[in-house]
């Protein structure tokens, strides 16, 4: 926790001094770690801001899984035991449903995640 706080202060200082452009800092965005296992995404609800980059870090625990948000044309998949990332910038507000995009068994159709995008 302390290391994150220190690195955040260092980044802020570099931005204020003009060494790191604000755009580069904004592109860093929010990183959200999601664990997929039959038939669940943890966490099951995530909230992000419109116009801010988001990196989804998907880890598959038991079998191959994927996560797709049709509304944003975003998809990521990971094999059993793997972690994969995808970065996107939400361009609209609302609540959107992400679904498992790799068939993982009988409960596959109920494997969903809610993405809340706010202003």
From TrEMBL:
Q: Where in the cell is it found?
A: Cell envelope
| Entries under InterPro entries matching the protein | CcO_II-like_C, Copper_CuA, Cupredoxin, EfeO_Cupredoxin, NosZ/Cyto_c_oxidase_sub2
> Coiled coil: present as a keyword of the record?
no
Q: Which GO terms describe its molecular function?
A: copper ion binding; cytochrome-c oxidase activity
Residue ranges annotated for the Cytochrome oxidase subunit II copper A binding domain, each copy included: 20-119
Annotated transmembrane regions: none
Which spans of this chain does the record mark as coiled coil? none
- What are the protein's UniProt keywords? Copper, Metal-binding
Instruction: Note the Pfam families from the entry.
Output: Cupredoxin_1
Going by the entry's taxonomy, the superkingdom of the source organism is recorded as Bacteria
Q: Which GO terms describe its cellular component?
A: cell envelope; membrane
Output the SUPFAM superfamilies linked to this UniProt entry.
Cupredoxins (SSF49503)
Q: What is this protein called?
A: Cytochrome c oxidase subunit 2
Q: Which organism is it from?
A: Granulicella aggregans
Taxonomy of the source species: Bacteria, Pseudomonadati, Acidobacteriota, Terriglobia, Terriglobales
């Amino acid at each position: 926790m302390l290391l994150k706080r220190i690195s955040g202060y260092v980044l802020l200082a570099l931005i204020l001094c003009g060494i790191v452009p604000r755009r580069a800092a904004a592109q860093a965005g929010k990183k959200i770690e999601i664990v997929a296992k039959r038939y669940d995404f943890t966490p099951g609800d995530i909230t992000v801001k419109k116009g801010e980059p988001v990196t989804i870090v998907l880890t598959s625990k038991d079998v191959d899984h994927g996560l797709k948000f049709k509304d944003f044309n975003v998809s990521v998949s990971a094999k059993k035991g793997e972690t994969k990332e995808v970065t996107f910038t939400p361009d609209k507000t609302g609540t959107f449903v992400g679904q498992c995009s790799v068939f993982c068994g009988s409960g596959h159709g109920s494997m969903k995640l809610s993405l809340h995008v706010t202003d």
